[in-house]
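pasting for the record
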Amino acid sequence: MDERALLAWIDAHYRAMPPVAALQPAPARFEGDALHLAAPLAANVNDKGCAFGGSLVSLMTLAGWALATRRLDEAGFKADVYVADSQVRYLAPLLSGLEAEAWLEEGDWEAFVATYRQRGRARCRIAARVRLPDGGDATVFSGRFVALRPG
């Protein structure tokens, strides 16, 4: 699937889940080995006028899920991808639109795909962040994602 088609598929998949659709996520782009996923502040604002922490971690989790799903799709595999665990640090309030960036934190994609091919399951660790307008980090994330053969 080419990049445009994959971004459209990710968008349709997100919109089919009511809690995710409420975040109004928009797959922005792939940039090298990273996926960027955006969401408007207005749909994700808390009582203090800044980005809601649950929205920040959700957007980073969704970006990680899409990144792992993309790698398996590129290799010709359909898999059920889940987040197994994650750690998040909230560093500063975000008063603008959200944009998560996710990338493979450790290991390599070839090993992830090879393990899935051999065992029908694989795991990877993905890092993500949401930046402040000045380029600093508002939130950082590290998550372990698991891919399982469907059915």
